[in-house]
Design a protein that fits this description.
With about 90 residues, the chain is an alpha+beta fold. Helices cover about 40% and strands about 20% of the residues. It has a three-stranded antiparallel β-sheet, with helices on one face. A hairpin with a 3-residue loop joins β2 and β3.
């Protein structure tokens, strides 16, 4: 799984959007974490360590699931270029 830096989260979300991949992130209060999901990528919960790290882990999970589910999408092609992608055959 690619571990994006917090500075890359905006780009990841934008690329998901441009590939028309549906997802959602929901804050679960108090101090529980973030839920992620979508009709096609499943659901998961990231426990809060800090808000920033929890959001980062949630987006990393969304990106991983989206790249698996939509392996022919522009997003998946971009995702697979990262050396730590499990789908990258160049690594």
């Amino acid at each position: 799984m690619v571990k994006f830096a917090i500075t890359q989260i905006g780009e990841v979300l934008e690329r998901l959007h441009h590939s028309e991949i549906d997802f959602r992130i929901t804050s679960v209060w108090p101090n529980v974490g973030f839920d992620m999901g979508g009709d096609s990528i499943g659901t998961a919960r990231t426990e809060i360590g800090s808000n920033i790290s929890a959001i980062r882990e949630t987006v990393n999970q969304i990106a991983f699931e989206a790249a698996k589910k939509y392996d022919e999408s522009d997003f998946a092609k971009w995702y697979k270029e990262f050396p730590d992608s499990e789908n990258n055959t160049a690594s």
